[in-house]
Write a structure and sequence with these properties.
Length: 437
């Protein structure tokens, strides 16, 4: 796919190596602590051994099933044999970064006996993420209800409203690093403008949100999306989700706008199994809707009914088939997206039926373009040319892969912020036609 250097843990100065040394052992420790009352003793023992294996950078062990029941439940043991072939005999600190992460989370499932007990070892972290950000969600939800109502009565603001929801989804990707308050939210002022018609707020909000947006190809995105209003067929839009919690909430707000303002059928692609601590699964969508309904029920605020109505509408979208939840084991795999057509042609050809797919988050971005040290001016369009439909990458930078930038732009940003690639402040909106119809 490229002659650029693959990001590998042999580079001890890389973000990947720091992740391996600091974060991965910590996550296993958190799982052992949180799962002590829910997991069998053997699972706790296995997880402790996994933690020691990582800390000692031992030789990686095979993915396997302890029984035929587990083999049938997980479905991917033979696939992992193939994935591991080129890395057999390697130590943990000799692996490519993304491959290491996929393997690490798959080992976590194996050692916690997930496929037998179906206990999500990250469930407490996900629930805490909802609880801690619920006040932010409530404030945003009420603003978005106002925006939707205004857009439905005034067609001239539909484009602005859809653009806001795209940005809402983009900046929601900050949520797995830190939960920002409404006062710190770069879109809060734009919410005010669209819901109340405050042009001064629009100017201030736009300046704040654009300051950290390194690549903005949203005009091409909006042009394609707005065609949905008059389309008689192929009104499908796909979102390949990233984190649960506040980011998932932001993505469902975007899906709401697509369905209500543009008449889209939205396919929400989730992880099939727990991964990356907070990545969304179907159950996390229902848990979020339940939490919003419960918050509205227990609130004495004057607009609690609006919050409840929004959550109930999301549940209705799912039940009516306007939103389709699409878990698939490919999203948990060790493969980059350019292997999708060869390894999972059913999913590839299904995505080809979509008018446009939105790829959320940093790990999905790395899988979309490949986890390589590209020159930052490398064309995003060329790297995503294989994708089965028009594709949009909404991503806050949290790793060392960044493409599609203007000459000299990366150097200028680095002078302002030496950690710009990994500190979660900067963002990009990339668009490529892929193989879209």
């Amino acid at each position: 796919m490229t002659e650029a250097k693959l990001i590998n843990l042999t580079d001890k100065s890389s973000w990947g190596y720091l992740t391996f040394k600091k974060r991965l052992p910590q996550y296993v420790g958190d799982v052992i602590r949180d799962g002590a009352q829910h997991l069998p003793p053997l699972a706790i023992e296995n997880l402790q051994k996994l933690k020691e294996e990582i800390e000692n950078a031992g030789v990686i062990k095979p993915i396997q099933a302890s029984s035929e029941e587990e083999r049938t439940a997980c479905e991917d043991v033979e696939e992992w044999k193939e994935y591991m072939r080129e890395h057999e005999g390697k130590r943990w600190d000799e692996l490519p970064f993304y491959w290491l992460e996929a393997y690490y989370y798959r080992r976590m499932l194996q050692e916690s006996q997930y496929f037998l007990n179906k206990y999500d070892v990250f469930s407490r972290t996900k629930l805490d993420g909802i609880t801690e950000s619920l006040h932010v969600m409530k404030s945003i939800a009420l603003a978005l209800v106002d925006i939707l109502q205004r857009a439905q009565s005034d067609a001239s603001v539909v484009e602005e409203a859809v653009e806001l929801f795209v940005l809402r989804s983009l900046w929601g990707n900050k949520a797995d690093l830190s939960l920002f308050s409404v006062s710190e939210d770069p879109l809060a002022l734009v919410h005010q403008k669209l819901s109340k018609g405050d042009s001064a707020a629009d100017e201030a909000g736009a300046a704040e949100e654009m300051k950290y947006l390194l690549v903005d190809e949203s005009p091409q995105v909006l042009r394609h999306l707005l065609q949905l209003r008059d389309a008689k067929e192929r009104k499908r839009v796909d979102i390949i989700l990233d984190n649960s919690g506040l980011e998932l909430f932001s993505d469902l707000c975007f899906a709401h706008a697509l369905t209500e303002l543009l008449g889209a059928e939205v396919h929400l692609h989730t992880k099939r199994d727990p991964m990356f601590v907070s990545d969304a699964m179907p159950k996390d969508i229902y848990q979020l809707i339940d939490a919003l309904e419960e918050a509205a029920k227990n609130s004495d605020e004057t607009r609690a009914a609006d919050l409840a109505g929004m959550a109930q509408k999301w549940r209705h979208f799912i039940e009516a088939g306007q939103w389709k939840l699409r878990p698939h084991r490919f999203w948990n795999s060790a493969l980059f997206f350019d292997r999708l057509e060869a390894k999972f042609p059913d999913l590839y050809h299904d995505l080809h039926q979509s008018r446009m797919a939105f790829v959320k988050g940093d790990a999905n971005y790395r899988r979309l373009v490949g986890d390589y040290y590209y020159p930052h001016t490398t064309s995003f369009v060329s790297l995503a040319s294989y994708f089965p439909t028009h594709v949009v990458a909404l991503r806050v930078l949290k790793s060392e892969v960044a493409v599609g930038m203007a000459p000299g732009q990366a150097e200028a940003v680095a002078k302002k912020d030496a950690q710009w690639l990994v500190d979660g402040k900067w963002a990009t909106i990339h668009y490529a036609p892929g193989r879209g119809q």
